[in-house]
Design a protein that fits this description.
Number of strands: 10
Strand order of the largest sheet: 4-3-2-5-6-7
CATH class of the largest domain: Alpha Beta
Radius of gyration: 20 Å
CATH superfamily of the largest domain: DNA ligase/mRNA capping enzyme
CATH architecture of the largest domain: 2-Layer Sandwich
Organism: Halonotius roseus
Protein name: RNA ligase domain-containing protein
Number of domains: 2
Largest sheet: 6 strands, antiparallel
Length: 281
Amino acid sequence: MNAFPATPPVAEAPSELLSGHLWLLELIDGRPLRFQLQDSGLLRVGDAETVYDDPDAIPLPFQRAVRHIRESLDRDALRAAVDDVEGVTFFGVATTRESVPYDLGSMPPFLGTDVWAADDEAFRPPDAADGIFRRLGLDPINTFAREAHARDFSVDSYEIPGSAWYDGPAAGVVIRNKQGHRGMVSNAAVPTATTSPVSDESAAGLSIDALATEYATQGRINDIAASLRAAEQPVAVDVVTDRLCAAVGRHHPDAFLGVDSLDQTAFRSAVAEQVQRQLQP
């Protein structure tokens, strides 16, 4: 699986970036997530640094995004488009609760940013990547401008637009051209997880019992059970538990990532106990 492409600040990007026609994309305050479709039909998933060959090892903050990809990805369309599905790596952002107050309820759990194809050992141009994600049933990153001519664009005078995912300014803009160059401009008015990281103390203060009590409520369990029944799926304790745990991971990513992260197995057990009690007739 290919590594994420480097996206430096524009001041550190190659001078060739600001040439030709540019794509201006919304910079999302989330967690990097990449995946491949294997010949078996299963997904192979990785974050910015680690590839998780064991699906059970995927950290909770990514599990909602991974489920979304599994359910939405048009595998037949991908197989019809390429000779080797394992030769394509998809990159994007898991939309987790970081510093920017996105409306996660309406925001897709995963937004696609890049596509790497092994046949020509290159990333697809931004317009091609946008179309690929759409054809495969996944949402691409929001585009502010397509084919903007570099002579009409100035980093110093550019006003970063509002975000597509909440009533407020975007965290920044990613600038790309069709030659493969890229860079980003952060919005100094918007603190992000990169510029204003959550402290270890705040993450450590989220205990297993507190999170289980907050999320494994009768109302949430009933909502999940109702959605499963509407989809004509069995209301099983493990399925409800998985969905609750994924919701917690998405809303509290720092609690499950890093050296002071909570034990996912212990947390899942605590949630499962409450789900079992609530679902008992």
